[in-house]
Specification:
The protein has one domain: Rossmann fold (3-Layer(aba) Sandwich), CATH 3.40.50.360. Helix content is about 40%, strand content about 15%. The protein contains seven helices and six strands. Strands 1, 2, 3, 4, 5 and 6 form a six-stranded parallel sheet that branches. Helix 1 links the parallel strand 1 and strand 2 (about 40-45). The longest helix is centred in the C-terminal third of the chain and has 16 residues, at about 165-180. The radius of gyration is 16 Å and the shape is globular.
């Protein structure tokens, strides 16, 4: 595996607020792979939102906790890795709500992103990946052309929540290398 570390800060976003999810497990596995090759990576789970987004003030940048999260995880990053579960044929509404609450011109414009789709079905959330790609393009975020759709995730994990399929591990490593060098 060739890693030419030209990396800038990457924020991995575990894109659900469901604390008991395959998304969080896959996010941690991917984060560990990134950490093998760079220290410039942060882990952000939407669980940290903890009610910060659904209220009248979210659009006015007046919620201190939300501003803190934006300043800690989003603004300093030059790249993002979104690990998105399939929710009703797309990505979670909490992710869209979080993005809507951000000052996207300040924190997202001109940056780069990679996307991993997670699904218990057989398509790896391809539709959700397409939907998020469209939103990111609207915000002038350049998206890594190689997606990583992870299908039947429940069959990819062993009893210790490690990936057990060597081909899936290889694809994850290749995707991580592409993101780092992107």
């Amino acid at each position: 595996m060739l890693y030419v570390v030209i990396c800038s800060m990457i924020t991995l976003i575990s894109s659900t607020n469901n604390s008991d999810s395959h998304t969080k497990i896959i996010s941690r596995i991917y984060f560990d792979e990134l950490k093998k090759h760079t220290n410039d990576v942060l882990f952000f789970s939407l669980e940290e939102l903890d009610g910060l987004t659904i209220n009248n003030f979210m659009y006015n940048n007046k919620i201190d906790g939300l501003l803190d999260l934006q300043e800690r995880y989003i603004t300093p990053a030059q790249k993002f890795l979104f690990v998105i579960p399939e929710y009703n044929g797309s990505y979670p509404g909490i992710l869209k709500l979080f993005i809507d609450a951000l000052d996207v011109k300040l924190s997202m414009y001109g940056k780069k992103a990679g996307i991993v789709g997670v699904a218990t079905g057989r398509a790896g959330n391809l539709r959700g990946i397409d939907h998020l790609t469209a939103v990111l393009h609207h915000m002038q975020v350049t998206v890594l052309p190689k997606y990583f759709p992870l299908s039947n995730v429940q069959h990819e994990l062993d009893e210790n929540n490690n990936l057990k399929n060597t081909q899936t591990i290889k694809v994850l490593q290749q995707h991580a290398a592409m993101l780092i060098n992107f």
